[in-house]
Amino acid sequence: MKALLLKRLLQLITVVWGVGTLTFVLMRSLPGDMAYRIAASRYGQDNVNSDAAALVREELGLNQHPLEAYWHWLTDLLQFNLGNSMVSGLPVIESVQHMLGHSMLLAFAGLMVSILIAIPLGLLSAWRGNPLDSVLMGLSSAIRAMPVFVIGVLFVLLFALHLGWFPVAGYGTFAHLVLPAVTLALSLAAVSNRVVRDSAKQTFRAAFYQFSKVKGLSTWQTFQRHGVRNIAVPVVAFFGIQLVSMIEGIVMIESLFSWPGIGHGLAHAIFARDIPVIQGAALAMGVVFVLLNTLVDLLCLWIDPRGVEQ
């Protein structure tokens, strides 16, 4: 347990430094005048000229040498200071906390809905076999082949514009959460239900599972005592791997549905060349990814304590 936590701590430090450094280098490497883009975001595209860009460049220190700017960023990071937004002037930590809260709400809702879809369908597919298995697997493959934003657009066209059941985009009510959460859930469930199905099939065919029926246990007792934990370990481990798809999906879904989360804020910050916000958002997603993977590892050890010895 201590080795696992120490390993994750080292991974967290590496991710924070690596993501921050890579973001810094990439944003500084983009073509165009950064000061002009920031001035356009502040004052409007029609009100920007070379004098306004020069003032922004001087105010924000954009004429510093890249190594000097990187050193200042690194020393601020060691003091847990993410700086202020170049556009709004607000502390980055406050903006990231606000956006991260909305993203966590969307991610949690999408994950819960995907679990409600994937686990029953995966177990049913493993238990019933063909032809239901083939139909569900074909449907899963078709959904997985579509990018998540395509699923979102189809939902908007059908449920928002055609039927008028839900708002097209925005935030504020439960109805605004439904379409983005279901879009994210379907993209996740299209893969995770196959993992549930494969894990369940392997467990149902195992000798220990068949022997428990010979002992006289009912189907439900056999599943409860010998099936749940053995099926759960690879499924929970896969959810840790699927966090990458979840983060990727959240960025696109938030932009599509104008959800005020960290992906939506990151997209706007990139267009505005707001480097502190970009770095803060990227760091937040990296930290959340490591923490959630640690939680998944601990959950797997709780389900199967034999993993501690491995």
TrEMBL record:
The transmembrane segments are 9-27, 104-127, 148-168, 174-196, 231-257, 277-303
| Cited Gene3D superfamilies | MetI-like
> What's this protein's name?
Peptide/nickel transport system permease protein
Instruction: Please give one Gene Ontology molecular function term for this protein.
Output: dipeptide transmembrane transporter activity
Topological relation to the membrane, as annotated:
Multi-pass membrane protein
**What subcellular compartments does it reside in?**
Cell membrane
Sequence ranges assigned to domain ABC transmembrane type-1 in this UniProt record: 100-300
